[in-house]
Design brief:
alpha/beta, Rossmann fold, seven-stranded mixed β-sheet, two-stranded antiparallel sheet, 11 helices
Length: about 280
């Protein structure tokens, strides 16, 4: 442990990161120092003396240069302004996924009953339970390791969510007359791997990412079938989708006799969600 100037530490970190984009290097360096060592941008600006574990910093830089996501290195990320534990067993929540919470809130359902299919870190289920008055939220995942992380997040954030281990492609969770099915299921075709960044492809769970090329909508088909059994009349499905398959996903729900099927774009302008009403 040594006292060093915060700007000197920042400059060293930027210099040792292996990235072509200088602005991206600086952005990652800022986040690493803030999240792992509590060194703020103001500390860096005034070159405040900070106590730093140089060996640990070097380890983190080396891991970043091996394409390990920063969020996994520091062990957490933020979703809706809340800190969520993450590791290699769960997807790292993306900023665009946060929009699904506002979409649900816009439905104006009083005391909603909700089930989250493929909960991962639990970020969607937990956020809904905390932000919607008297919401009753259940969440499932095939991965027991992911559910362990989700339960830790719920406990830390004091959210009342019921978690269960279920292989959704084989079994439906018990539910009846619920208001909303929500999901961010696997939807990336295997063939799309070639276009993905190494930090995602090498470090995030493929079980939560990929689907077969010849059956890319397999989870949406199961969600549509489940909704027919579990939703009350007028109940909703709201799911994140593959932006390249928006039209196909919407048509699938229409084929299962859902009404008012709508594709919703994210803040990037990409097709990101599908909303459908049962009955």
């Amino acid at each position: 442990m040594s006292y060093l100037g915060a700007k000197n530490v920042f400059d060293q970190t930027v210099a040792e990161l292996i990235l072509d984009d200088e602005s991206e290097k600086k952005s990652i360096a800022f986040l690493l120092l803030e999240d792992a060592f509590s060194i703020s941008k103001m500390d860096i600006a005034i070159n405040k003396p900070v106590l730093i574990n140089e060996l640990l910093l070097q380890e983190y830089i080396e891991r970043l240069n091996l394409n390990e996501p920063l969020q996994q290195i520091v062990g957490f990320t933020y979703f809706r302004g809340r800190k969520f534990k993450v590791d290699k067993n769960v997807l790292i929540p993306r900023p665009e996924t946060e929009e699904i919470i506002d979409l649900v809130k816009g439905l104006n359902i009083e005391e909603p009953s909700i089930i989250d299919i493929g909960t991962g870190s639990g970020c969607i289920a937990i956020s809904l339970q905390l932000e919607l008055s008297n919401a009753k939220v259940k969440a499932i995942d095939i991965s027991k390791e992911a559910l362990s992380i989700a339960r830790q997040n719920a406990k830390e954030l004091k959210a009342q969510v019921e978690f269960s281990a279920i292989d959704f492609l084989k079994d439906f969770p018990a539910a009846n007359q619920i208001d909303l099915i929500i999901s961010n299921p696997p939807y990336i075709k295997d063939m799309e791997k070639v276009d993905m960044k190494a930090n995602v492809l090498e470090h995030e769970p493929h079980l939560a990412l990929f689907v077969p090329n010849d059956d890319a909508l397999v989870f949406y088909r199961r969600i549509a079938e489940y909704g027919q059994k579990a939703l009350k009349t007028g109940g909703y499905i709201l799911a994140e989708i593959n932006s390249h398959l928006g039209k196909e996903t919407a048509q699938l729900f229409e084929q299962y006799e859902y009404q008012s099927v709508e594709i919703i774009k994210d803040f990037y302008g990409r097709d990101r969600f599908v909303k459908a009403i049962w009955g």
